[in-house]
Write a structure and sequence with these properties.
Oligomer: single chain
Helix content: under 10%
Structural class: mainly beta
Strand content: over 45%
Number of helices: 0
Distance between the termini: 40 Å
Length: 117
């Protein structure tokens, strides 16, 4: 089992930046990939970015590519999402998730990101 806890959300003006963190505990050696998703009321959950547990490969959705950076501290069990040039449409609850080989079935509780115009 793996437990995930997000932090770093908050209120930021459009054009600003936030850095989200995801702390993982438990059987982290079983993780193949980790990812960030976001969800807003009335919309389906949206993929944002993923990173292999090794940190060697990353992938971003088209809407955030060039603005967001996903990373992992290889010395510990933390993952990060640096969000720059934030837009109002980026506002959402952001969740980190872990893929232990069978898809993203382990989720954190989420952290709220609010972007004001």
């Amino acid at each position: 089992q793996v437990q995930l806890v997000e932090s770093g959300g908050g209120l930021v003006q459009a054009g600003g930046s936030l850095r989200l963190s995801c702390a993982a505990a438990g059987r982290t050696f079983s993780i193949s990939n980790m990812a960030w998703f976001r969800q807003t009321p009335g919309k389906e959950r949206e993929f944002v970015a993923r990173i292999s547990w090794s940190g060697l490969t990353t992938y971003y959705s088209e809407t955030v590519r060039g603005r967001f950076t996903i990373s992992r501290d290889l010395a510990n069990n933390a993952m990060y999402l640096q969000m720059n040039r934030l837009r109002p449409e980026d506002a959402a609850v952001y969740h980190c998730a872990a893929d232990l080989g069978l898809g993203y079935k382990t989720w954190g509780q989420g952290t709220q990101v609010t972007v004001s115009s």
